[in-house]
Amino acid sequence: MLFSIIIVDDNLFDRENIKDLINWEKLGINVVGLASNGEEGYKKAVELKPDFILTDVAMPIMDGLKMAEMIKRELPDTRFIFMSCFEDFSYIKEAMELDAYRYVLKPIELEELTEALKNIRDIKQRELERGREWDELKQHLRESLPVLRVQFFRDLLQGELRSHKQISEHLEYLDLHIENKLYTVIYIHIDNFNTAYSKASAEQRHLLVHGIKRDAQVMIAEKFNGYIIDQQSKNLALVLFSECPDQEDALSGVLETLNNFKDTINKKYSVEITIGIGEFSRSLSDIGSVFESAEHAVKAKFYSQGNRIILSSQVISRDSGLQYDLQMIKNQLTYILEKGEKEDVLWFVEVYYKDGVILTESYIKSLTFSIVNIAQTILLERNESIKEIFGDDTTIWDKLLHFETIVDIKQWILNILDAFRQHLSEDGNKRYRKIVEDIKSIIDVNYAVIDTIDDAIKPLYISRSGACSIFKSLMGMTIYEYILYRKMEAAKELLADPYIKIYEVAEKVGYKSKSYFSSVFKEYTGITPKQYSDKHSS
C-alpha cells in the first residue's frame, strides 16, 4: 500500500534534499506536498490529508509544534516526525505530547531518517491491518446479531447478567433500543409431550416443536418485537416488549394474542399447550425472576388443568406445613355431599374457615384448592363431573384465583359445595329453581345497571353456560330475554307518566342512548316510546 507524506521546512535546501535523496518508492511512501512554514503546511495537510508529516520545529509565521497541534484536531490519525537543530528538552517534551513518532536532530542523517520513516510506515501498516480486522469483526458481529441477541436474552433469563452497567453495554453493542418499555416473559409448555408423543420418531417430535416455534415467532414475537429462547425440547420462552404505558393495557394485548395462538396450535397440530405469563417489569435486570414466575405459573397447571393461559400473579404459593388432614376432609365431604343438608355445608365451612383466626392468604387458598380437588374426586368416583354442574370447570379455578378476601372465598366455597351436594341429591330440580329465582331476583332489583348475562350471574359464582342452560329449561326464555323483559316493562310503566321525558326513561332503565332505547322498545312493543306514551299517558 502506498502511503502519503508532506515535508514542511523553511530551509529550501533541506526540504529539496530530503525530497530528492530519500528512496521514497522503496519505502512505499509518496511525497504529495512541500511547505515552507507551519501555516502553509497546515493548509496543505487539511487539503491533502497525508498519512505522515515530516516537519521542522522552528519556522517563521507558524512553528511546527503549533501546526501539528492544529492538524491533530482535524486529522487525528496523521503521524509526525519532527526535525530540529535544538536539543532543548522542552521542545522534545512538547513534541512527544503531540504523539510525535520521532524527534530527529539536524543536520539530518539520511540513514537515521530512512529508518524512522520505515518504522512509522510499519506502525501505520499494522494499524490499518488491525482496523481492517476490526471492521471485519464488526461486520461479523452485525451478521451474528440475531444469534447474539438471543444469547443475551438467554443470559438474562438465567440470571447471568444483572448489573445495569453490563446490560447497558450489551444493549449498545447489540444495537437494541428497548429501554423504558414494559417487559415480560412468556413460557410455553407442550402438555403431556413425553407420554403423548412417546411413540413418535425423533424427527416427528422435532418437527412439531419447530412448527410451534415458527408460529410463536410469527404470531407473538414479531408482534411484540420479542425474542424466542429455546428451553427443553417441549418448552419455549419468549421475552416480549410492550409500548403500552399502562400494565393492564399491555396485559390485555398479550392475553388476546396468546389466546389466538393457543387456539391456532390446538387446531393446527391437535396438541394442547399451557402458557405462563410472568410479571411485567420495566427493569431488564428483573427478567430472570420474571422468567421464573412464568415457569412457575405453567407448573401450577398441576392443581387444575393444562391447555390454558396462567398468570403468574394468580399462582398460589403452597406451604408444605399446612395443618389439616386431607383424609378427614374427604370423609367429611363424602358424607355431606351424599347425605347432608345445607346446614352440614355451613358447619363444614365454619370449621375450616374459622372467624377470628388469623390465617395467611396462601394457607386459605391452598386449603380451598384441596377441598375443591377432593370434592371433584368424589364427583368423579360417582361418574359425575364439575362440568355437568357448571357447564365449564375452568370457571371454578378462575374465580378462586381472583378472590382477594376470605369472606369472598367462604361464600364461594359454601356455594360450590352446596351445588355439589344438591347435584348428588334427588332434589336437583329444587336447586335449579333456587338458582333461577336468585337470577330473577338480581335482575328485578338491578335491571337498570345490568347490560350482560355476566352482570346478572356474577354474585352467584356459577358458570355462564350452566346458568343459561338452567334458566332456559325452567323459564322457557333466556337470561338475556328476561333482562330485556324487565327493562321494557319498567319502561312502559315510566312512559305512562306524561311529565317524564323519553331520554329520562332510557337512562332509568339502563340505556345511555335515547335512539338505541327507542329502537329496542319499538322492536319489543311494535311502537315507538313516543307513540306508547301518547297512547297510555293520562
List keywords for this structure.
538 residues; alpha/beta; Alpha-Beta Plaits; 4 domains; five-stranded parallel beta sheet; five-stranded mixed beta sheet; 24 helices; 10 strands; elongated
Assign the structural class, choosing from mainly alpha, mainly beta, alpha/beta, alpha+beta, or little secondary structure: alpha/beta
Total domains, how many?
4
Please tell me what the overall shape is.
Answer: elongated
Helix coverage percent: 55-70%
Description:
This protein is an alpha/beta fold. The protein folds into four domains: about 5-130, Rossmann fold, CATH 3.40.50; about 175-315, Reverse transcriptase/Diguanylate cyclase domain (Alpha-Beta Plaits, 2-Layer Sandwich); about 325-480, no CATH class; about 480-535, Arc Repressor Mutant, subunit A. Helices cover about 60% and strands about 10% of the residues. It is built from 24 helices and ten strands. The chain has helices at about 10-20, 25, 40-50, 65-75, 90-95, 110-155, 165-175, 195, 200-220, 245-270, 285-300, 325-340, 340-350, 360-380, 385-390, 395-400, 405-425, 430-445, 455, 465-475, 480-495, 500-510, 515-525, 530-535; strands at about 5-10, 30-35, 50-55, 80-85, 100-105, 180-190, 225-230, 235-240, 275, 310. The strands form two sheets. Strands 2-1-3-4-5 form a five-stranded parallel beta sheet, sandwiched between helices. The longest helix has about 50 residues, at about 110-155. The protein starts with a strand and ends with a helix. The model is unreliable at about 320 (pLDDT under 50).
